[in-house]
Structure formats: structure tokens, C-alpha cells
Amino acid sequence: MLRQYELVERVKAYDPDANEDLLNRAYVFSLQAHGSQLRASGDPYFSHPIEVAGILTDLKLDDETIVTGILHDTIEDTVATQEQIDRLFGASVGRLVDGVTKLSKIEAQTDSERQAENLRKFLLAMSSDIRVLLVKLADRLHNMRTLHFIKSEEKRRRIARETMDIYAPLAERIGMYGFMDELQELAFRQLEPEAHATVVARLAKLREGGGDAVARIASGMKLLLSQKGIDAEVTGREKRPYSIWRKMQGRQMNFEALSDVMAFRVIVDDDSECYRALGVVHGRWPMVIGRFKDFISTPKRNGYKSIHTTVLHSENTRIEVQIRTRRMHEESEFGLAAHWAYKQGGDGARAREAYPWLNDLLEVLHDAASPEELLENARLAMFQDQVFAFTPKGALYQLPKDSTPVDFAYAVHSDLGDTCVGAKVNGRVVPLRTRLVNGDQVEILRQKRKAPDPAWEGFVVSAKARAAVRRHVRQKTLSESQSMGAKLLDSLGVRLKISLDDELLGPALGRLKLADRPALELAMARNLLTDAQVGEALVPGSTAGQKPRKKRGKPGPAAVSIHGLTAGVAFELGACHPIPGDRIVGIRHAGQPIQIHTIDCASLAEEAGEWLEVSWGAESDGAVARLMVVVHNQPGALASMTAVLATHNANIVNLALKHRDREFHTDVIDIEVDDLKHLTTIIAALRQVKAVVSVERMRG
Ligand code: MN
């Protein structure tokens, strides 16, 4: 375990201005907080955060990040509180520690590829500061290094699986290949112990035959390059068992044919040297067709730059060669972390706030060539239009921003959506219109044989939920119209004292040019045919002399139609006097007409009925608004006011004097208006009247 002074010295080595006091205090605090806790290895628990901090010093990260590494488990695993961390180490460190603590709480099933991808995105989105993610990755790396101490095989496998599916790809995403390699290697050993052992054994066998082939080939290559005037550092290594294994799987290769197990890195000063070195290598050894890739001229999406090639070094030895500059090398090992370290070293500035880091990151992203590339690289910003939520069992779903429990239910399964009647978010029952936020756990309450509520259409945001609700609304409207039409036809039959049998209906349908009885009923329900027309068709001459009946209006205030309520549903406008243009909701109590209220109506606070999403229909052409007007107590005041109302076509329905004293009188006026715009114009005009002191719209 790193000692206190060793850790401080490591940081000081690359950042002389690092806050020594902060580091020392964090060390002591963490030591005391973790106290006598032990790791599975039998080591003091405290060794873990210190090793994590040590890994972070390899990335040359700033003192706040190192301190976060030291403190990263104190809130989760000790009695230390967030307030303590904030107070003792500052808000900035507090935020970082909080971020890591939150990430550590995320555990999800990763049994499918899609789940894994969602979880990776979620972790990125939750890392409001990329340093949070770096600490989390360092934490995971150290846990993987000490994985073999954990006794339960099931637990080891779970952690290894998660590392393989989530954390290694995340490291790759932000360009940290060093981390990625090691995480994959450690996970591979746990997940596929036999495959791992086989590859290792084969490598040992190859080594026997060739002596120290790696060192020999590396020094030969370095010599060749220097003869051609290129000063290069050449390092070689055996490929990691995992990468060999994966390659074999991908190509259905036989172990015996395995000749491609060594990889070399040629590190030179600048880009043009890279190409010169490539020329030298290809000039000396034949290149293997299809293995040459130039990521310098076309970097990978995560910013990775290097030249890759494979050459035939001897008859049965292929070697992979990567050629890159020193900077490209560090960036490929440490990814975005390296970008940051460079920036710090370059101008010597200290980044104490989170923003300079963010700026650096944005700069990196700014250089991205395409939107897709940005998407690959970016963290928070790209997920701002997404929200991630869990099922109670931990499966993770990615939804569009502003999604509700209904969207969530449909994302899980359309059947769950259709039968959804309520939801619990994080254990609490919430209205179905509640907007979900990142990390919410959603439990859908369902009822058999329930159907989607038409009102959902007003708040769901996902395409799947929307389509399902619309489909259902169409069907429901149709069947409601159908049954209403059937009743209309029956009552017409009763009025005409006829029996609606085929004998009578057949010719009538022919006269009306309709296919069948349901078509007739539908036409009646939709007011396409009047009773008189149908009666005439059924019994010609029967309606002669009768006055045509008045067209049936919709229930409720005749002038208003409300969408979201299916045909034939009765409604009433509430005491808040909603008018077309207002945002409204419907409240349903069993056996009563639906009450329509403005969305900000005070009575809604204690409303116990069922909330329905409704909106004004296109045919809405008027409702009554209530105004409270304070007027100077002077002759002609009222007359000038009513004159204004008249010129604006606002019919006064009711006028009541509410209060009068020597100076003012207060009137409550109900006026018929077309819509909100009309009302706004009227209020503005009234306020222009000299005698008028104030005009306010009254709600309830
Ligand atoms: Mn930890």
C-alpha cells in the first residue's frame, strides 16, 4: 500500500502546485473513517482507496481527483456524511465524491447486449464530470486486480461479467486502452478459465522454441530504423491472452496455426516520422494484406491515432506493428485523461473548477469530424434528450426525455402498457403523467382487462406508447359511436312504430346507399344522416309534414368540444371558467360529468378524482370568462366599460356589483368570449378605459 508521503510525492512529481494539505487531510480522514474494516484479501479496507488513488496518479490527474479516489468509498461504506466531505474538502471534491457514490449504487442486470449498452450510456450520462468516471474506472480496475480474493464464485463471475460488458467498453469509449486491456484480461481469466489457460499454455510453448523472440525482434527493428536515420523507441510484448482468444474466435482459427502473438510499438517524434518508419518496416518485411490501417490520417471515433500493420517477420511468425508519436501513445493509454494532463502541463494552469475540464473536453469534441464521432466521444450532452429508468428487477430502459411511467410500461412490453393503471416511482405511487428522471426505478401497477386511457395521448412522448394509445382510441371511438348509433336507430324505430327487420331495412339501406346496418348506425351517430332522412328511407312518406328535428348537439356546453373525451361523454366547465386556449385538465368522478378545469385552478390541489388529459377541440367557439373589474366610482364609468365590451363583440352574460365604497366599486362580469386571445384583447382594451383601475380574470 502506498504510504502517505509516497502518494503526495507522486502527485507532486507531475504537479508541483498540487494542494499537499488537501491530500494529507484526505489520507488521514479516509484512514480513520475506514478504521478496522477489512478487504476480502485480509488487507485493511483502507488500502483499496489508496491504491485507487495511486492508479489515478498514473493518469497524472489533478489533486481533486486524487482526493476523490481516496475518499470514494467513505460515504457508502463508513459513517462519514456528504456534509462532512463538503465541509472538510470543499464543494468541488464533495460533488465528485457524490458522483462516484451514485455510480457505485447502479447495479443492473446485463443479460442482454442492449441492456449493457443502455447501462454504459447511463453511466456516462450520470458522470456529470468525466473525472467521476475516471475514479469509477480506477476503482473497478483495483477491484478486478484483487478479484481472486473474493470467495464466492458467483460473485466473482458477476463482477467479471459486468467488467467485460460495461466497464471495459466504457474505457474504450473514452480512449483508455490501457485500462481496457487490463480490465478485459482480468475478466477473461475469471469468465473463461479454461480458454485462458489454453492460450497461456500455447504462448509458453511458442516461447520455448523462440527464446526471447520479443526482445530480439524489438532490438533488430530499432537497429534497422536507426540505420535509416530514424530515432525510435521500440517496445514489444506478447499479446494479451484475451485479445488472442478473441481474434481466434473471430476467424475460426486453430491454435496450432497461431503465429500472430507478438505486437510491437514504434514510437517516434512526429507524424512524418511515423510514415517514414512505416516505409522502412514495409521495405524490410512483407506486409500482410488486409491488416494495414492508418488511424493517423483517419483517427478512430474516440480520437485514437496510430498506424497499424502486420508483417511476415519470418516464415511462421507474423508480427503486429503499431507506429505512433509519443503523444499519440499516451493518449491511447490514458485517453481523455491524457488530453487533460497535457493541457495542464502545457500552460501550467491549475484547473480547480470543473469547467476548465469541461472546456478541455469540449475542445477535444470540437475536433470531432462528424456528428457520429461527437456522439461516440461526448458524455453528458449527447444524452440530454434521453432518460434512463430501471424496472424493479434492475433491467434498464432508455427512453426519450420527459417520458412518463406509461412510456416506460410500453417500452418494457406493449401488454404492460395496455394494462397499466398506476405506477410507483422509487417506491412511491405517482400520477401516470409524472416525468421520469435519470435513475428512477419504476414499478407498473396493472389490472387485467384494462385498456389504454385515451387521456394518455396528451402526455406520453415515446412513439410506441403514442401509437398504442391512438390505435386504442380509434377503436374505442368507433365502438362507442356504433353503440350510440344503434340506440338512435332503435329509438327511431320505436317512434315510427316499426320493427327494424331485414324486410324493411334492406330497401332502406339501398335507398341510402349504405352497405349494412352497422354502417347506417355509424352514419346516424356521426350526424351524417338525420332521423328524418332515415325515417323517410325506412317508411317513405312517414315524416311528411313533420318539422325537421334539430341537429343533435354534443352534451355539455353546446359551443365547446373537448378532445381527449370520446364522443358521448358528458362534461362541464368548472368554476374556474376555462376558455378555449387555456391549458385544461378533466377530472372524472364516478357517475358525474367530467369537470374541466384550467391547469392552474386552485381547486385541483385537493382533487381526488381521476385526472384526464383533455384539450380544446377545433370547433370550440366560445365560453364564459369571469372578470373582476375595479372602477372609479364616477358617473359614466360603467357605460364606458360596456361600450368597450360591445365593440369587442363580448356579450355580457352577467354583471354583479361586489363591493362599493366612496372611491371605487368592484364588479364581477361574466362575458362570452371566443377564446383566450379574444379575452386578452378585451382585458387590454378595458385597462385603457380611464375610469378602470384594474381588470383581472377570476378563476373559481
Ligand atoms: Mn471502491
Instruction: Estimate the helix proportion, in percent.
Output: 40-55%
> Total number of helical segments?
26
Low-pLDDT stretches are 342-383, 545-559
Query: Could you say which small molecules are bound to this protein?
Result: manganese (II) ion
Strand residues, percent:
15-25%
> What is the name of the CATH architecture of the largest domain?
Orthogonal Bundle
Average of the residue pLDDT scores: 80
Number of strands: 20
Domain module count: 5
Briefly note the structural class of the backbone.
Answer: alpha+beta
CATH fold node name of the largest domain:
Hypothetical protein af1432
CATH class of the largest domain: Mainly Alpha
Give the biggest sheet. 5 strands, mixed
User: What's the gyration radius in Å?
Assistant: 37 Å
User: How far do the termini sit from each other?
Assistant: 70 Å
Query: What best-fitting shape do the alpha-carbon axes yield?
Result: elongated
- Largest sheet: spatial strand order: 1-2-5-4-3
